[in-house]
């Protein structure tokens, strides 16, 4: 799919012109450290997946897509009325000739790893803000939610030019480091950036890094437009999900779902410029069919892998998307 990083109308056949210019409201094109810091207050109204999930699953009730926090053995005591017979420690029972039960408590923390895509394909938006800004906001909000829960927070922020990783740590300093990196990568984006070449850092590279630094039981969020999703991406996510909990948030813009109104447009990926004539009905139909097929294939692949998956429209507030995601994973 051609990455619409910049679309300018060549003829005034409609009111849509320069839908992704860097001029105008800078706040909708780039995010700031202050903005990402203030999301901490939004995080207080939301909650991360907790140990309730693991307890329900252990008891044979509704199975969640996530494993939840781990449970550590706390003590072994005499069996009491009402104890779950499945928790009986048969070795201790045989040795002491009296039934004994294992007691567990919730692990105090779990690692949370956030993969935030700030590549040039994310630097696009036709309505409220850019995909790259929504990804940055989502990453920061998840980080604040995790630290409020007492979890360890880290992440991988990447662009076409490279990446920066922050290993999970349970401190607000770790979140601030993460936020600073996000803002740096976000503000480095420009329509004048060269188009990514064969050596560009990709989502697949980021997922490979996640395999290297994540420990079993890590809660991993992947924030991207997934435009370069392929079989290798699927394999990397499957490997990660074997020993971790993985959720995916796809950023998209309405203009990516439907071509702009009939007219002649200049389309650029930062290096090449092409002319797009949307007056041809055949082109519109073929484009919409291609996009629909891509979206359906991506969603069905995530479902088949058991990955909680949600789409984030640039016109939708980040908190609304997080609320939907938490309903899927809680």
Automatic annotation (TrEMBL):
The record's region (Disordered) falls at: 1-25
Every DUF58 domain range: 75-293
- Signal peptide, first to last residue: none
Name the chain's protein. Answer: DUF58 domain-containing protein
Q: Which organism is it from?
A: Alkalimarinus sediminis
């Amino acid at each position: 799919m051609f990455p619409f990083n910049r679309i300018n109308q060549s003829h005034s056949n409609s009111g849509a012109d320069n839908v992704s210019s860097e001029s105008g409201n800078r706040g909708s094109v780039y995010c700031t450290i202050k903005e990402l810091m203030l999301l901490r207050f939004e995080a207080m109204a939301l909650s991360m997946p907790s140990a309730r999930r693991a307890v329900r699953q252990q008891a044979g009730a509704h199975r969640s897509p996530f494993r939840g926090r781990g449970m550590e053995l706390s003590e072994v005591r005499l069996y009491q009325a009402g104890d779950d017979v499945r928790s009986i420690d048969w070795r201790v029972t045989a040795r002491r000739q009296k039934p004994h039960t294992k007691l567990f408590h919730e692990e105090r923390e779990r690692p949370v790893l956030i993969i935030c895509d700030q590549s040039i394909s994310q630097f696009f938006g036709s309505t409220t803000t850019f995909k790259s800004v929504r990804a940055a906001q989502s990453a920061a909000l998840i980080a604040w939610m995790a630290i409020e829960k007492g979890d360890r927070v880290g992440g991988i922020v990447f662009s076409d030019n490279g990446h920066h990783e922050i290993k999970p740590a349970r401190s607000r300093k770790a979140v601030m480091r993460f936020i600073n990196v996000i803002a740096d990568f976000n503000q480095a984006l420009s329509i004048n950036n060269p188009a990514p070449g064969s050596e560009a850092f990709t989502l697949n590279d980021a997922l490979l890094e996640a395999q290297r630094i994540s420990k079993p039981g890590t809660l991993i969020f992947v924030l991207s437009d997934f435009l370069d999703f392929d079989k290798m991406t699927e394999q990397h996510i499957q490997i990660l999900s074997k020993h971790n909990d993985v959720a995916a948030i796809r950023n998209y813009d309405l203009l990516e779902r439907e071509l702009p109104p009939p007219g002649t447009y200049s389309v650029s990926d930062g290096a090449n410029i092409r002319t797009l004539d949307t007056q041809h009905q055949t082109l519109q139909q073929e484009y919409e069919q291609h996009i629909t097929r891509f979206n359906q294939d991506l969603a069905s692949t995530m479902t088949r892998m058991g990955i909680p998956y949600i789409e984030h429209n640039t016109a939708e507030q980040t908190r609304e998307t997080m609320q939907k995601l938490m309903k899927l994973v809680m």
